[in-house]
Amino acid sequence: MAVCVAIVNRSNAPKYIACVNPDMELEFHYKVHTSLDVIEERLTSTGKSNTERQEFYLGILYSTEEHTIYGYVTNTRTKIMIITDTSNKLLRDNEVRAMFRKLHSAYSHILCNPFYVPGDDIKSKYFEQVAKSVMVGG
Questions:
Q1: What domain count does the chain have?
Q2: Parallel, antiparallel, or unpaired: how do β-strands 57-63 and 14-19 relate?
Q3: How much of the chain is in helix, strand and coil states, percent to nearest 5?
Q4: Helix, strand or coil for residue 116?
Q5: Counting beta carbons within 10 angstroms of the beta carbon of residue 90, is it exposed (0 to 12), middle (13 to 18) or buried (19 or more)?
Q6: What CATH number corresponds to the domain at position 97?
Q7: What is residue 34's three-state secondary structure?
Q8: Range of the domain at 55
């Protein structure tokens, strides 16, 4: 399924990045930061505020020879990105949406924790399990 999952806060600071292959983490950091420009462009081109938007899912942000980057933005402008292999032709749009819903739900679960300080990096075992399940296809 996914090869990388990233959560970026409203000020474009990464709060969580996990990859299937830790050796490629720097490359995925680069791809996540490059896709932030595409997200900002799509959000400003609609002319609607976050509360007026009905759809959180942004679809494919861009595609390279090796990877496809999908985007999702919450009401609080937290960006969730999933990077998949381009060779994975069986992945459908509704499956990607389901992965984003799963990650958004886990992220909301973290925010409801009274011991989590908003803005801190995400260091939750529960979120880690959900992210790993998205990456291995569970």
A1: 1
A2: unpaired
A3: 40, 25, 35
A4: coil
A5: exposed
A6: 3.30.450.70
A7: helix
A8: 2-136
In contact, 100 and 80? CB cutoff 8 Å:
yes
For residue 71, what are the contacts with CB-CB under 8 A and spacing of at least 6?
35, 38, 39, 42, 57, 58, 59, 61, 79, 80, 81
Higher-confidence residue of 93 and 133: namely 133
Q: CB atoms < 10 A from the CB of 109, how many?
A: 14
pLDDT of residue 35: 93
Bridge partner residues of 84 (DSSP) = 2, 68
Over 90: is that where the pLDDT of 17 sits?
yes
Q: What is the pTM of this model?
A: 0.88
Residue with tokens 């081109």: 45
